[in-house]
């Protein structure tokens, strides 16, 4: 499924200018059909899955309780 620049910006929750910038920097692959860019939506699936895994990992780390008695030795 191909998206326009506007649809891609909405899908990624970024501005259209950022989408254009990423296309120029070749961070987003796009096809130019003569009048507009077409962006394959499937290229974002892996990235979004990795971001979800990262968010879960961060939530797990943040939800771990801090130990009450830390064995910290003062070096002074």
TrEMBL record:
<protein>
    <submittedName>
        <fullName>Excisionase family DNA-binding protein</fullName>
    </submittedName>
</protein>
<keyword id="KW-0238">DNA-binding</keyword>
<dbReference type="Pfam" id="PF12728">
    <property type="entry name" value="HTH_17"/>
</dbReference>
<dbReference type="InterPro" id="IPR010093">
    <property type="entry name" value="SinI_DNA-bd"/>
</dbReference>
<dbReference type="GO" id="GO:0003677">
    <property type="term" value="F:DNA binding"/>
</dbReference>
<feature type="domain" description="Helix-turn-helix">
    <location>
        <begin position="2"/>
        <end position="50"/>
    </location>
</feature>
<dbReference type="InterPro" id="IPR041657">
    <property type="entry name" value="HTH_17"/>
</dbReference>
